[in-house]
Structures are given as structure tokens and as C-alpha cells.
Amino acid sequence: MAVPKRKTSPMKRGFRRSHDALSPASYIEDKDSGELRRPHHVDLKTGMYRGRQILDVKK
To answer: Which residues contact 32 (CB under 8 A, 6 or more apart)?
Structure first.
């Protein structure tokens, strides 16, 4: 069984965990409606994606 020879210092532990942090969700302003939406996602209020009607909007 592999056993570490030395204790891992807090600095080295922090280096290893530096990529584990969660980044905040990014939102962009929609060109047509001005609403905030996730990039590369369909605008649920209008049903548009990249200038095309994808979803039918219920009235």
C-alpha cells in the first residue's frame, strides 16, 4: 500500500485544489428582447435561438 513519506503542506494542498472552485454562472443580454439568458441556450420567453424560432411560445 502506498503511504506518503511527508505531510502535504497547506500551500501544496491549496495548489491542488485551486481548480476545484465553482465559477459563477455567466449570463448575456439577449439582442432581441434585452432579457438575460445563458449563452448558447434558447430564450424561453421568445423561443428564439440564433435568430430562428425554435420553440412555440404559449400565450
So the answer is: 43, 46, 48
Q: Which amino acid, residue 19? A: H
Residue 42 identity (one-letter amino acid)? V
**Whether the predicted model's global pTM rises above the 0.90 cut:** no
pLDDT by residue (tens digit) across 11-51?
999 999 999 999 999 999 988 888 899 999 998 888 889 88
Let me know if 46 is exposed, middle or buried by CB neighbors in 10 A (0-12, 13-18, 19+). middle
Q: How far apart are CA 33 and CA 14, in angstroms?
A: 43
